[in-house]
Please model this.
Amino acid sequence: MADEYASITLTDDEGQTTEFDILDTLDYEGERYVVVAPSEGEGDQEDDLEEPGDGEAAPMDDADDPFDDEDAVEVVILRLVGEGDDEYYETVDDDGKLDALFEMFHDRHVGEYDFE
Model:
């Protein structure tokens, strides 16, 4: 049985929505972050994860299962801003901070995912 993840739907600047699975939440330097990956329905979440780059998800071929071991899924790390109904997510532009956050995520999930 596949793992169940909480999900969020994000809307980009052009009004397009994408659903993401929340893989983890991280507290770092007094701020909260979420680690997400594009939702793909009932696929196997035991996938290869790549280090994030510039807060963007890697493009995926729709014909292939992105959670197949041959395909790596790039995670996106977002900063959680606000509280309650005023909560929203921001991209993280600091590469050093992204590296530190990914390292935290990696250390917490090293036995759960195959990291490249």
User: Anything to note?
Assistant: Residues 7-115 form one domain. Confidence is low (pLDDT under 50) at residues 42-47, 57-67.
